[in-house]
Write a structure and sequence with these properties.
It is a single chain. By secondary structure, the protein is α/β, with parallel strands linked by helices. The chain has a domain of 216 residues: Rossmann fold. 40% of the residues lie in helices and 16% in strands. It is built from eleven helices and 13 strands. A seven-stranded parallel β-sheet has the order 3-2-1-4-5-6-11, sandwiched between helices. Strands 7-10 form a two-stranded parallel sheet. A two-stranded parallel sheet has the order 8-13. Helix 7 crosses helix 11. Bound molecules: nicotinamide-adenine-dinucleotide. Nicotinamide-adenine-dinucleotide (NAD) binds next to helix 1, strand 2, helix 5 and strand 5.
């Protein structure tokens, strides 16, 4: 049986990948330092996985973590654009140096078959094209986006130089259960659900027409597992999203519907530097990974609200 390593497996997306791998009967190891992840995400499956608590920046930790591993899903990172703007040095250290450390150990491994990397739609920045296709020139607007873009180049170069099979997946605004609603850097969906569950109004920057290709996490999980074994994808960069965009007003309306409330948002000035619209072209994922949107936005939002209603910390 193959051994799968999920870096950042204690985080939101990582823990969902871990759960799916376990469901499929696979052997799973997690490497996480829980800097932004939550131990609760792994509580119910702790006895089914091997957990290495440590930092991707440590050579010896990564060496141990990669021992005997066949597939890696590299999710560990300091996410969030605003976090990288307030502390670009630490973001660079974790997101670039940590990733390079992982790649350098991986290239010497005799067992690793492929590494799948969690990149981000933020690399497109303010590209004016309405649909973001992988061939567009990157236009990063934040240290976080620069981190992810630099990582993408490392993944490509390690494939070309050392033959280490790598696949880069660009996520677009992923949401779902296990996402942290309580951090100052929390994403918009868990943040809005938490507020609206308490009867409070969420604040929208701008008039609410800002739109995103919100992607329920299970779609991203399936894409990761497909990317680990699909033929002819090594060295590729692939968007994974729903290929549909929804506005912040749609989002508030959807949460109201799921909560059976009628809470009105507060509108304030559009934030400088924010990207107005983000929408993915997902045809490459469909072609190379056989990807399809298993759970669309509205259904995913319903599921997420239900999951958040059951959590004590929300
Ligand atoms: N959530 C999204 O919408 C989204 C969009 C684009 C890309 N991504 C990327 O997907 C990945 C997962 O994101 P997420 O939303 O699950 O975030 P998350 O914060 O829940 O998960 C990141 C995990 O990495 C761990 N980690 C951080 N620094 C580490 C270190 N130095 N050593 C070991 N572990 C470390 C954290 O503790 C956490 O468990 C990240 O790489 C993120 O940049 C996420």
């Amino acid at each position: 049986m193959a051994l799968h390593l999920v870096t950042g497996g204690g985080g939101f997306i990582g823990s969902n990948i871990v759960q799916e791998l376990l469901k499929r009967g696979e052997k799973v190891r997690v490497l996480d330092n829980f800097s932004t992840g939550r131990r609760e995400n792994l509580l119910s499956i702790l006895s089914d996985i091997e957990l290495i608590e440590g930092d991707i920046r440590s050579y010896h930790t990564v060496l141990d973590a990669l021992d005997g591993v066949d597939y890696i899903y590299h999710q560990a990172a300091l996410p969030s654009v605003p976090r990288s703007i307030s502390d670009p040095i630490t973001s660079n250290d974790v997101n670039i140096s940590g990733t390079l450390n992982l790649l350098d150990v991986a290239r010497r491994s005799k067992t690793i078959k492929r590494i799948v990397f969690a990149s981000s739609s933020s690399v497109y920045g303010d590209a004016p094209e309405p649909k973001k296709v992988e061939t567009l020139p990157p236009r990063p607007l934040s240290p976080y986006a620069v981190n992810k873009l630099c990582d993408e180049y490392y993944f490509l170069v390690f494939y070309k130089l050392y033959g280490l099979e790598t696949v880069v997946i660009r996520y677009f605004n992923v949401f779902g259960g296990n996402q942290d609603p309580n951090s100052p850097y929390s994403a918009v969906i868990p943040k809005f659900i938490r507020l609206m569950k308490r009867g409070e109004s969420p604040t929208i920057y701008g008039d609410g027409s800002t739109s995103r290709d919100f992607t329920y996490v299970q779609n991203v999980v399936w894409a990761n597992l497909a990317a680990a074994t699909a033929p002819n994808v090594a060295g590729e960069v692939i968007n994974v999203a729903c290929g549909e965009s929804y506005s912040l007003n749609d989002l508030v309306q959807g949460i109201n519907a799921a909560l059976q409330t009628n809470i009105r948002p507060i509108y304030t000035d559009f934030r400088k530097g924010d990207i107005k619209h983000s929408l993915a072209d997902i045809s490459k994922a469909q072609r190379l990974l056989g990807y399809q949107v298993f759970i669309p936005f509205r259904e995913g939002l319903q599921l997420t609200v239900q999951e958040m209603l059951n959590r004590k910390d929300v």
